[in-house]
Structures are given as C-alpha cells and as structure tokens.
Amino acid sequence: MSNSATSLASLKEKLSHFKLPELSSSGLLVFQSGSFGLRAALFKADKDYASIKAIAESRQVDFTRAIAEIHQTLIKQHSSIPRRCILISPSLLISTLSLPVSPLKPKANSDMQELIRWEIEGATADDNKQWLIGSMLVERGYLTSSQREEIVTELELRQNQDGEAAMTRFGDLAVELEYLTTAQLQECFTLQNKLIELDQDTTFGYQAELTENPLDSQFSGLSDDVLSTNNDNQSEHQWLIAGLGRAIRNRWYGAFELNGLKLARFYPDNGASYAALGLRTDEENQCLIEVHPSHLVFLSGSPRNLKIVKTKARHDGNLTLDEVLAICPDNIANISDNLYLYSPDDTLDELSFALAEHLNIEVRALVQAQPNFSLPEGFSSNRLLPFIGIANHYLKFSEQGRACSVAAKDKEPPLWQKMLQPKALMAMAASIVLVVAVGFIIWMQMNLATQEQRLVELKTRWETESKVKQQYGKVAAEYKKLATNIEHIKTEIALNKKLNNYISSQLLPGATNVPGALSAIANAINQGVLIEQVTMQLDGIIIDGRALKTRNASQFARQLNENLKPWNFQVGDTHSSAAKEETADGVFIDYKMHIEVGRRYFVEEKNQVSNSSAKNSNNKEQGQ
Question: N or C: more exposed end of the chain, with fewer CB within 10 A?
C-alpha cells in the first residue's frame, strides 16, 4: 500500500512538471521594433478575439540576436511557441491617398505600386525625421528629458559662437557632458542606420476604404451601389497606404528566417493604437492622438475605416498644449464627441484637461489594464495596446479598413514562371545533363559486361569453327578450280553450238542455193532486160537493172519466180520507174527495175503464181 502511494506521488510530481502545449495553430507572435530595441507579445486566438499571454523584450541592436533572445525567453515561459509572426515597425510610413482605382476592380500589384509611388513621393524623407538621435537616446534610457533639454540649450549657445564650438553635434556634446558613453552613442548610431529608410525602392501595401452601409454586416456588402461603383474605375477612391523600403524588409525577413520563424506582414507603428481603439468603441466618428517621443500622430475615421493620418514633429522637452492644438483640426468638436489620447508612459492628465477645455470636447486617455502576467521592468501596460490592436486586425477580428500592412515577402510566382527563370532553366539543364550522363555511364557498363560475355562466347565459337573453316577453305579452293574449268568448257560448247548453227543455217544452204539462184536469174533474162547488180543477203536476193518496157520487166519477174521455186525462193516486190540517167556503159534505157526475192515459206500452185504475176504486170502497164 505504501509502495502504491509512493508511485502515485511520483507520478503526480512528474505530471506537474509536464506542460501541455498552450497554443494551437491559432497562436501568433507580434513583434515591435524601435529605439528601445525589440519587443514581442505572444497571442492566443479564441473565437472572435486574440488575447495576449506573454511579453518579452531585448535591447540588442543586432536584429537576429534580438529575435533569438526574445524567442528563448518566451520558450522558457510557454512550451509551445508559434512560428507565425508579424512586426510593428516605425520604419513604415502610413498615409491616405485618393487614387483613380475602383476597390471592386483594383489594378495589378505592379501597377498599383507604381501609382502609389508616384502619388506618395517625398513622404519617406519626411518620415525619417522622427529618427532624431536625442529622441532615440531618451527612449533607450541613456538620457532623461531634462538632460536632453540641457544639451539642446547648450548646443544653441555654441552654434551662435564662431570656431569649432559651432560645429559640435548633439551626440558629441552629450558625451562631452558625460551624460552617456561613446559606446552608448555608437549603439544608437548603429540602430539609427538600420531603422532609417535610405533606399528609394519602397514596397507598398494598400487597403481600400470600406463602405459604411450599416446593412453590409447583414447582407455581406451587397447593394445596388455595387452595380454603379463597379463601372466607376476613373473616379477617385480613398485608399489607406503603408510603405517600407526593400532593404529593411529583406533584412528583417532574413533575421526571422534565421531563427526559424515565419514573418508574414509588417505594420506601421504610427496608427497601431487606432486598431485597438476599434475594439473599445463603436462611435460613428473616432479621433485619436498618438504621442511618440519625437512626433505626434492625429488619426481620424469611422468604425470601419481610418480616413485621416497626420504626422507632426515634436519640439524638444515636454509636450505642450500648442503642439497638440497644431495637429488637431479646427472643427474637431463638430467631427467627434470624444478625442482619445494615447501616451504610453504618461497619461498627460493636465494636458488632457486643458485640451478638453480649449476644444470644448471630452478628452479620454486610451489605456490598457494590467495583465495577469508579469511585465518587464519599466514597461507600461499601455504599451500593450498596439500589440492588441494589430494582432486582432491581422487575425481579422477587427475591421480591415482601420490599418494597413506590407507583405513580408513578395508573392511567389506560379510554378511555370519559376521554371522559366534563368537559374531554374540552368538547373534543369544541368539536371538533365547529369541524368543523361549517369544513364549513359550505366548503359555503357551494362553494355560492356554484355559485350565481354559475348566476346568470350564468340572466341570459343571461333576456335571451334576455325578448324572447320580451314578444311572448308581447302574444299572451296578445289571446288573453285573445278567450277572455273567447267565454265571454260561450257563457254567452248556454246561457241561450238553457235558456230555449228551458223554453218548449218547460213553456209551450207548458201553453198547450194547461191549457184542455183544465179542460174535461175540468168535463165530468166530476156532481150529487153539489163541486169546491173545482184545482191545476195541471208534471207533473200535484191536485183537492180533496166528494162526497155514494163512488160519486159514483168516477163522477167514471172520467169524468175518460176525458176526459183526449186530453190525455195520467190519474187516478192517488183518496182519499175522511168529512168532519168544513162547506164554505166552510156546506154539509155527507159525504165529502172528493182526486184526483191525472198524465201518461200509455203508452196503455191503454179497457176496461182502465174495469175498473180500477170495481174501485177497488167496493173503496172495500166499505171504507165
């Protein structure tokens, strides 16, 4: 029983040291930068409100180290810290502009950036005036307000003198009077260089003025006005603008990324408490004055929108009634029933009373109650208001028209645009070349192994077949000789056959037929015919001569045809024509005679030949 009790007590002790995660994915870290260094508040988002759970700060000048120090402090207090962060920075400018852009049809981001940059030119330089070294030294706690006033008075006296005394700077005089050390002054200079916007490449965020229709909350802003406004792209519309230099933006984003945190957006320090005011009141017209160490900010608007932002530098020393009156509109009593005053470290009761009496308006201090967790030493609970207002605005628990922010990083382009970037194309090309090279090497190795195995097989096969080829070579050589001899013999046989055919078909018939044919020609000659030329051909005989009359030629042809029958010849064509020249012997005979004799391919009856010859002779005579 005692062992069980001991085990139970041990388990309870272990469970007491074990902390469950307090924040879910709805947690948020809100950072704030300034001359004081860096602060951060941890928020937990409920259904419709974000409540603050812890606060930490760092006086480090190095952004990355300051974030790391705050992160470690919060981890010690809470077991689960979200990675999502936003930053409230005095480096951002804030203003309201009238632009010819309809909120229902905004231009592309690049066009909006150029349009805003053109309209807001010069505001960055005015915004940098708040970074006076005296104000920074006071805010960091190195100087008091009275010490700063003494240095300013002494500086004015020296500037009226001649010589090197007139060239003395504020910081050098503070060190000379031993109000601060050189290291402290150098620290402020370093911080000043990091916070002042020097580059002209500014990135802007923009928020269109929301409609004030009370039915918007019920009908999601749908009304007939939307139809007319939808086509109204050329008229002027009010926009709330925030701007931050790219150099500072990239520096902060890189510092958060090095600490494993995801910075989402930047919010301007000027006007941050106005977002918190919307959580306290729903007055139709709201006016607020923010008191900063080096300047004043007047903000005015409605429950849904911040419409007027006015900044004015402060004089050295305590805040006076004249400075506040200078920034307030003359008819402020007609604009709003109440004027809220936000001063983080001092409620300014006397100034509030004098201001209310002079403006005939109720002046209320915007304050924050003490939280249920401990605050850093010298940290006023009123300084939590900008954190609360901006956190609820970012989480969309308050009206979006009451503040404006700048994205911490440009929107990532689509994947296809990334792929078309030169670096991406080069990486893809290198990857393709690498994959192809590796694939080629692997293929070569596999192919080499396959070829080596095949080479071994071929070598064995070659050794086996080489012996057979040697024997085959001998047989082939002998066969080639025999084939050559056979071809020679075949050629000789073919020549002999050709010669034999020629002798049998030409020489032998000619030897017997030619004498008989000549004898037949000679026996057919009559007294009216003169033979000039007899031409013997392989398939016939051609006879050229003269005749006194055509009948002599016809008679010669008929007789020749009869005489040639035993020799298998017959008269083919007979041509007679008038002679125009003498013979070779100088005798003139009237008609030329041309007779073609061919071989007989069939035997004709004698009377048929005679009749045909007679008929040809008669036709020729009639033609003459």
Answer: N
